[in-house]
Amino acid sequence: MRDVAARAGVSGKTVSRVHTGDPHVAPETRARVQRALDELGYLPNALATTFRDGRSAVIGVVVPDVEDPFFAAVVQQVDRTAAAGGMLTIVAGTGQDPAAERARVQTLLSRRLAGLVLAPVSDDQSYLRPWARSTPVVLVDRRPSRLTADSFASDDEHGAHRLTAHLVEHGHRAVAFLGDTAALPTTAARLAGHRRALAETGLPERPELVAMEGADREGAAAAVAALRALPDPPTALLSSNARCTMALAPLLADLGMAVVSFGDFPLSDALVPGVTVLDQHPRRLGELAATRVLDRLAHPERRFRRRETVPATLVERASCTLPS
């Protein structure tokens, strides 16, 4: 920048103002500086900017699975919103491993991120406390545990209650629950909502109708086979997330059970039958999370509501009515 300033006969501050598009620079000065920029091939040094400002213009996004349609939609929208605010994003996946979450998050934060959007799998985010004092941290899909941080999430318990009650309203009296792991707070809350709906409608809770092997096609197929083999098999099934429902997709036409899904996914309406879903609006969650990071950076003294619930929408299709 000093070389550009010397060639153009201006100060370094004027070079910076031209480079950032300050409209208050005289046209002839702007042209002279721009000519010097072009002749010297000047490019801004992002690392130097990080040293000067104390943080990079980057938002980190950490989710369990970047291929999961729910988290993929969150990531895409965070990236769009960040770009509109002049930020880049770095994305990392953790699987379902709390240790991997902590390691990857701390590695990202050590790069002096401007902010972090996290969908945690750990049940304790206290390791983030030192970072959260100076860096905006926003959780999506799950609430913080042992950490004061902003969060945007659906009401998992209420949503699953709504889906199970919807099946009961269609006449089903034996409703199964398919998940991937009971260790996740979201799955545990959805199972609790499912059980509450059964109790409120006077239906017995049957442990044999709860399966936690639905994360992939093999597990989902085995779970369905076991449910069908019961002396009193279920006539309906609540899938606890979009990933489990996608694992069920090859079986839907001959499943012999009604199906509802907690979470929408691509082509859910094109399957036969079309799948009834509870749309959690992941793009809205991503937009809110990224906007909160940008707002906290722009207004560090402003008070914001820490915990916000994003309403989900029930989208009814043919799958909840089959079989009759």
Can you walk through the features of this model?
With 324 residues, this protein is of the alpha/beta class. It contains twelve helices and twelve strands. It has helices at 2-8, 12-19, 27-40, 46-53, 69-84, 98-109, 129-132, 156-169, 185-200, 217-228, 242-248, 282-298, and strands at residues 58-63, 88-93, 115-118, 137-140, 150-153, 175-178, 210-211, 236-239, 258-262, 276-279, 307-309, 313-315. It has a six-stranded parallel β-sheet, sandwiched between helices. A six-stranded mixed β-sheet has the order 7-6-8-9-10-12. Strand 8 (236-239), helix 11 (242-248) and strand 9 form a beta-alpha-beta unit.
Task: Write the H/E string, N to C.
Answer: HHHHEHEHEHEEHEHEHEHEEHEE
Fraction in beta strands: 15-25%
> Which overall shape is indicated by the principal axes computed on the Cα atoms?
elongated
Q: Which assembly state applies to the chains in this document?
A: single chain
Percent helix among the residues?
Answer: 40-55%
Output the radius of gyration. 25 Å
Order of strands, widest sheet: 2-1-3-4-5-11
- What is the average of the pLDDT values? 93
* Distance from first to last alpha carbon: 74 Å
Number of helices: 12
